């Protein structure tokens, strides 16, 4: 699978980001990173990205409408789930992370094209993907819990409904503002969420998909 995406090298991000940082030294880093991602990438008609999404059952129109730009780059995943753009890195999908207002760009998240469970952020400042849904009453309409996905790919497969915890330590400040319970993918996922996000979450706050019970402490 790695060879499928090896042709889509986009090493221009680093230069674009450095140029923007020099030009706008007082601008928020997240906004500059998002702008650099857009400027340095073919974002709307990349056949490689479209092929990847087709293989992984992602509706590309919905994904691009809610999370554009989504780009293919080579990156290197490092310590504390931080990634960097690198010509000799592995192919990964990259998209922008927004704040709870669903508009302010705060970071980028990348996940490995060959291993979606391997993901990280560019600036290390964001805790949640889909953070706006935490404080949106519509997310919990009819007392339904808000889905927590293990990976950004899972979030896209769900039509960008729900959240992904990118950093538990940074997610806690937003999770305490939630307007209802959360829904984990399975018992192990639920236990990990509660353990990593305590004291913002307890076992009473996380349900398990396909079960009427709640997560164990």
Q: Can I get a quick summary?
A:
With 217 residues, the protein is of the alpha/beta class. Helices cover 32% and strands 21% of the residues.
Question: Describe it for me?
Answer:
With 217 residues, the chain is α/β, with parallel strands linked by helices. The chain folds into 2 domains: 1-125, no CATH class; 127-209, no CATH class. It contains 8 helices and 10 strands. A 5-stranded antiparallel β-sheet has the order 2-1-3-4-5. Strands 6-8-7-9-10 form a 5-stranded mixed β-sheet. The longest helix has 12 residues, at 12-23. The radius of gyration is 17 Å and the shape is globular. The protein starts with a helix and ends in a 9-residue tail after the last strand.
Key features of this structure:
single chain; 217 residues; alpha/beta; 2 domains; five-stranded antiparallel β-sheet; five-stranded mixed β-sheet; globular
* Distance between the first and last residues' Cα: 38 Å
Low-confidence stretches: 1-10
Counted by DSSP, the helix tally is 8
Overall residue-averaged pLDDT value = 89
H-E order: HHHHHEEEEEEEHEHEHE
Structural class: alpha/beta
- Give the beta-strand count: 10
* Cα-based radius of gyration, to the nearest Å: 17 Å
Q: What proportion strand?
A: 15-25%
Share of helix among residues? 25-40%
Principal-axis shape: globular
Total of domains: 2
Main beta sheet: 5 strands, antiparallel
Q: In order across it, which strands form the biggest sheet?
A: 2-1-3-4-5
Task: Walk me through the topology.
Blueprint: H1 2-5, H2 12-23, H3 29-39, H4 47-55, H5 60-67, E1 70-77, E2 83-85, E3 90-98, E4 105-112, E5 119-121, E6 128-129, E7 146-149, H6 152-157, E8 163-165, H7 168-175, E9 182-184, H8 187-197, E10 206-208
Parallel strand pairs: 7-8, 7-9, 9-10
Antiparallel strand pairs: 1-2, 1-3, 3-4, 4-5, 6-8
Helix pairs in contact: 2-3
